[in-house]
Amino acid sequence: MNRYLPVARQHLLGAAAGASVVVKAISGVVLLLYFLSWAVDTPYALGVTPGFLFPPNFWVWTLATHGVVEEHAWGVALSVGTVVACGRLLEPLWGALELLIFFAVVNVSAGALAGLSYLLTYVATFDLDFLFAVRIRGAACFLGGVLVALKQTMGDTTVLRVPQVRLKAAPALVLLVLAVLSLSGQLESAAPLASYSYGALSGWVYLRFYQRHSRGRGDMSDHFAFASFFPEVLQPAVGLLAGLVHAVLVKVKVCRKMVKRYDVGAPSSITISLPGTDPQDAERRR
């Protein structure tokens, strides 16, 4: 271990030195709030507390701040490491502004969804602890979003050779680990599990339907479908359920209708038949 620590430290410092202003700013805020937490209860003031998020308190600023609040050194390392890795792997593809937008979308959406889920849990149980004893904060939500983005961009990359694990399986594996730790009581609460889950979901929805790029908006490819995050045996059932939910969301104009695009100028085995033309004319047009 002592042999690898200097190498890891060197790689981290090299990545941080070449990072953009966005990556350095987010990392700096995480470190600043961590040191500030020694004197001030930052998780209370800046983390999402479900009972304070909604009226009459309406602490909406916590939706923007909860993702950079950490109480422990390992949390700071995870948060800064996630941001630096995102800057190293995703920022060259997206740009600094898109990285900042993704960070904001994932954190705000995950905080709102997690707070709403705890509110609904309180409505079902009338247990005030779900409103005022829960603190939603830390890098778990952004980690979920980043792993989803890495599945989209480099899902076939192998991260472990024995056993062989590809990057596209990472979101589900981390979710499984957090679920086991939560059920076994190793986590302080279920908040990290909820935060990670909603962060991954928010990141997928944004990348699937809303992110703007040179090819248009979103990513409707089959390898990035919602069912692809599940084991193959479950994918048909999940795909059917996801299709029904998507149809409802299209009806209420939350999501857009899926449109398949084909580059008819590229070499392909797809034959496109045009009404009113013979096969030779269709081949010439293709």
Taken from the alpha-carbon principal axes, the silhouette is: globular
CATH superfamily of the largest domain, called what? Rhomboid-like
N-to-C series of helices and strands: HHHHHHHHHHEEHHEEHH
CATH class of the largest domain: Mainly Alpha
Unreliable residue runs:
266-286
Strand order in the sheet with the most strands: 1-2
Distance between the termini: 59 Å
Mean pLDDT: 85
Would you kindly provide a written description of the structure presented here, covering whatever features stand out?
This protein is mainly alpha-helical and 286 residues long. It has two domains: 221 residues, Rhomboid-like (Rhomboid-like fold, Up-down Bundle); 54 residues, no CATH class. Helix content is 60%, strand content 4%. The protein has 14 helices and four strands. The strands form two sheets. It has a two-stranded antiparallel ribbon. A two-stranded antiparallel ribbon has the order 3-4. β3 and β4 form a beta hairpin. α6 runs parallel beside α10 and α10 runs antiparallel to α11. The radius of gyration is 22 Å and the shape is globular.
Topology:
Layout: H1 4-17, H2 21-36, H3 42-46, H4 50-53, H5 62-65, H6 73-89, H7 91-94, H8 96-125, H9 129-132, H10 140-154, E1 158-161, E2 164-166, H11 170-183, H12 191-210, E3 212-213, E4 216-217, H13 235-251, H14 279-285
Antiparallel strand pairs: 1-2, 3-4
